[in-house]
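Supplementary notes for students who missed Thursday's class. We covered one full example, reproduced here. Read the sequence, then the structure, then the short commentary at the end.
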Amino acid sequence: MVKMLSKAKPLHPSNGKPRPSGPAWDVARLFPDQGCWAESDYLELDTNRLVELSNGKLEVLAMPTRSHQLIVAFLYAALAGFVTVRRLGKTLFAPYRVRLWKGKFREPDIIFVVLQSRGPRDGSGQRRRKEPAQGFGDQAEGIRLGAHSGVLDC
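Structure (token representation):
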């Protein structure tokens, strides 16, 4: 006689039921395939994770570490102080989507937005406007601190 041994599943701490075997991968079928994401699909995505769009593909960023956040806080405070005193624009921090160009959105750790263009003027003396960075002004520069590389990406 062969006796079958069953392995007991660990219980979920909140409800005492056996833990599920893993993520519900079928949920992914509710979304576009990688390489097929449109800007409208991306902008409708509602999540508490940092997600970027590049050439129709989603890039889910790793959760930042405590040391990463402390460095970002230090850099943000230094940049915000510099920008505020000189009235150069606004300084923001993640999460904040910045459209770099069609089909490319990033969520940098720190964003510097120039509120007034110092750029060229048209024939009537008016400043030529570019598409605003999320409605704040003419230009936005982002800084993303590389969590694993120790490198600043701009």
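Commentary. The first strand starts at residue 51 and ends at 54. Residues 25-60 form one domain. If anything here is unclear, bring it to office hours.
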